[in-house]
């Protein structure tokens, strides 16, 4: 028995707890799925699965379809979410680009709208609300359950406000109050790296052969660097008065007296290992020459793929700095599996080797069992925001 998945028979008949929520996550990620497969992947008895899903089938949350098993004469009962009339909206407020999208419990993204993020919070939220209203009109006749919002900074403990987004210079912004539809629709605000960790967790659950992904670190690199923590299959947000701040490793110092950062510190990790830092590394910290624009990360990757030496050096240097920071995070948290998300993934073929070499130089490199892998380059943005909304629904069933 996997003790990190404490879904036991005595939970039958009770509301879905934080631990029992793992069963619903598995059904949503892998649907349609049989009870036998759920039991195998969670290392629990099939009777335990039946006891806990039967009330949800009876109430109409889950549906059960009998289908012919592939390549066999017998028929299997497949479980999936039944309610396609309920939908969720996700908002990813990015430093450069924002997205608003909608999804159902079946997992498909039904709508998505992109727009450039205005520099002022008031303008960005006004445009966001306009796009939410547009999605609500498109989905007339269906019930909007929850709105999830991912933000590039720290969310407050109540998951309603943005405390500080360094790369946007937004402080104390009432996100939920600005985008709410009415009191019947809850708005949940989450750090974008934590949201991305939720999204990656669902993908790993869907694609894995057995078990659930119980512990991993998500490093999301784009304009900045954020870290999402999944511990015991649950995202970790900190506790007490600093709940919501966990994972701000992008602003840990890795170069004493180094480059100035928008947060006010010097030598922050994201100044050396984010996708946005590639331009200054490529230019050697000199300003662009007359008529020369700062290269975008994807342009540097494209040049590296055709053999440009400077571009390859830039990506390798980012990999080195990224590995230094990851080794620190692994040592500090004690979780050995790391997933890289965000634009940095586009340059993974040049980043992976120096990243691993940097980790091997650290004390972590002397220990077996650690791993770093590439995740989603872009999907975790709006995908993460949608996961925030759906996860809140599953938690409150």
Determine the mean pLDDT. Answer: 87
Strand arrangement, major sheet: 6-5-4-7-11
- How many helices does DSSP assign? 12
Number of strands: 16
Second-tier CATH architecture of the largest domain: 2-Layer Sandwich
Give the distance, in angstroms, between the N- and C-terminal Cα atoms. 26 Å
Can you tell me the overall shape?
Answer: globular
Number of domains: 3
The Cα radius of gyration reads: 22 Å
- Unreliable parts: 1-16
Q: Could you state the CATH homologous superfamily of the largest domain?
A: ATPase, nucleotide binding domain
By CATH reckoning, the class of the largest domain would read Alpha Beta
Tell me what the structure shows:
The protein has about 400 residues and is of the alpha/beta class. The chain has helices at about 20-30, 35-40, 45-60, 120-140, 175-180, 190-205, 270-275, 280-285, 295-305, 310-335, 350-360, 380-395; strands spanning about 35, 60-70, 75-80, 85-90, 95-105, 110-115, 145-150, 155, 160-165, 170-175, 185-190, 215-220, 225-230, 235, 335-340, 370-375. It folds into three domains: about 10-80, Orthogonal Bundle (Arc Repressor Mutant, subunit A); about 85-200 and about 380-395, Nucleotidyltransferase, domain 5 (2-Layer Sandwich); about 210-375, Nucleotidyltransferase, domain 5 (2-Layer Sandwich), CATH 3.30.420. The chain is built from twelve helices and 16 strands.
């Amino acid at each position: 028995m996997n003790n990190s998945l404490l879904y036991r028979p005595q939970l039958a008949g009770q509301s879905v707890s934080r631990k029992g929520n793992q069963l619903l996550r598995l059904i949503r990620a892998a649907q349609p799925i049989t009870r036998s497969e759920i039991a195998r992947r969670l290392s629990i008895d099939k009777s335990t699965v039946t006891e806990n899903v039967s009330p949800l089938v009876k109430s109409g949350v889950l549906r059960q379809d009998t289908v012919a098993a592939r390549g066999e004469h017998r028929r299997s009962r497949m479980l999936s979410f039944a309610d396609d009339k309920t939908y969720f909206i996700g908002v990813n407020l990015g430093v450069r680009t924002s997205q608003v999208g909608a999804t159902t419990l079946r997992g498909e993204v039904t709508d998505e709208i992109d727009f450039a993020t205005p520099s002022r919070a008031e303008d960005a939220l006004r445009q966001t609300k306009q796009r939410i209203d547009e999605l609500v009109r498109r989905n007339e006749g269906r019930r909007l359950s929850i709105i999830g919002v991912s933000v590039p900074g720290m969310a407050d403990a109540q998951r309603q406000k943005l405390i500080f987004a360094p790369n946007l210079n937004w402080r104390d912004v009432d996100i939920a109050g600005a985008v709410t539809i009415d009191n019947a629709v809850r708005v949940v605000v989450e750090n974008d790296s934590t949201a991305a960790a939720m999204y990656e967790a669902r993908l790993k659950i869907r694609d894995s052969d057995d078990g659930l992904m119980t512990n991993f670190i998500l490093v999301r690199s784009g304009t900045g660097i954020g870290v999402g923590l999944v511990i015991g299959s649950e995202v970790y947000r900190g506790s007490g008065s600093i709940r919501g701040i966990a994972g701000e490793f992008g602003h840990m110092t890795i170069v004493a007296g180094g480059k100035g950062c928008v947060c006010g510190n010097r030598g922050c990790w994201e100044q050396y290992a984010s996708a946005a830092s590639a331009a200054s590394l490529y230019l050697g910290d000199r300003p662009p020459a007359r008529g020369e624009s700062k290269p975008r990360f994807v342009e540097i990757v494209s040049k590296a793929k055709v053999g440009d030496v400077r571009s390859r050096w830039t990506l390798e240097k980012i990999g080195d700095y990224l590995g230094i920071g990851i080794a620190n995070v692994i040592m500090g948290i004690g979780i050995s599996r790391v997933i890289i998300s965000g634009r940095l993934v586009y340059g993974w073929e040049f980043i992976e080797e120096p990243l691993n070499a940097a980790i091997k130089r650290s004390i972590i490199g002397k220990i077996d069992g650690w791993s770093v892998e590439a995740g989603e380059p872009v999907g975790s943005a709006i995908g993460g925001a949608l996961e925030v909304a759906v996860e809140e629904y599953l938690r409150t069933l």
